[in-house]
Automatic annotation (TrEMBL):
Lineage of origin: Bacteria, Bacillati, Bacillota, Clostridia, Lachnospirales
Cited Pfam families: Ribosomal_L10 (PF00466)
Superkingdom field: Bacteria
Gene: rplJ
Organism: Candidatus Blautia faecavium
Family per similarity comment: Belongs to the universal ribosomal protein uL10 family.
Assembly mode: Part of the ribosomal stalk of the 50S ribosomal subunit. The N-terminus interacts with L11 and the large rRNA to form the base of the stalk. The C-terminus forms an elongated spine to which L12 dimers bind in a sequential fashion forming a multimeric L10(L12)X complex.
Keyword set includes Ribosomal protein: yes
GO BP terms in the entry: translation
Cellular component terms (Gene Ontology): large ribosomal subunit
UniProt keyword list: Ribonucleoprotein, Ribosomal protein, RNA-binding, rRNA-binding
GO molecular function: large ribosomal subunit rRNA binding; structural constituent of ribosome
Name of the protein: Large ribosomal subunit protein uL10
Matching Gene3D superfamilies: 3.30.70.1730, 6.10.250.290
Length: 173
């Protein structure tokens, strides 16, 4: 079997992964220890993000004709792909967190919802809170006026009860 035939399934695997992905982030992992890489992979897996190391030539062939074609210019050195099919910000958020923690990990570029982002764009995307955090903030802002109204009504009722007690004592005297 020729070498090309052996590489074809890998190229197809990459192409299929990035085809329907919400987010694809390219990182340079050179210099990470095995322990650091294991911690990073565990958190990415828990978030539903596929993280894999591929040869740059394989990624180059797989990216041709996809939204990720703009990433081909960055395929030098030791690169890994983080791919999420459901959450557009998860790979960038998790990788940026670990890039701050481990300076050896470097964000390179990415494609989020079909749009190319350089390193600065991926870092900006990483600062966006997760969907769950945004929903929690929305719920808190909706709930806040209602709870404030309940607090004010409670204070008015307590003040009304105190005034009645003072009026009753002054009537006795």
């Amino acid at each position: 079997m020729a070498k090309v035939e052996l590489k074809k399934p890998i190229v197809e695997e990459i192409a299929n992964s990035v085809k329907d992905a919400q987010s694809v982030v390219l990182v340079n992992y050179s210099g990470l220890t095995v322990e650091q890489d294991t911690i990073l992979r565990r958190e990415l897996r828990e978030a539903g993000v596929q993280y894999k190391v591929y040869k740059n030539t394989m990624m180059n062939f797989a990216f041709q004709g996809t939204n990720c074609e703009s990433l081909c210019q960055h395929l030098e050195g030791t690169n890994a792909l983080a791919i999420s099919a459901t959450d557009a910000t998860a790979p960038a958020r998790i990788l940026a967190k670990y890039a701050k923690q481990y300076p050896a990990l470097e964000l390179v570029a990415g494609v989020v919802e079909g749009n190319y982002n350089d390193k600065a764009g991926i870092e900006a995307l990483a600062s966006i809170p997760s969907r769950e955090e945004l929903l929690g903030k929305l719920l808190g802002s909706i709930q806040s006026p209602i709870s404030n109204l309940a607090r004010v009504l409670n204070q008015v009722a307590e003040a009304g009860g105190a005034e009645a007690a003072i009026a009753a004592k002054s009537a006795e005297a």
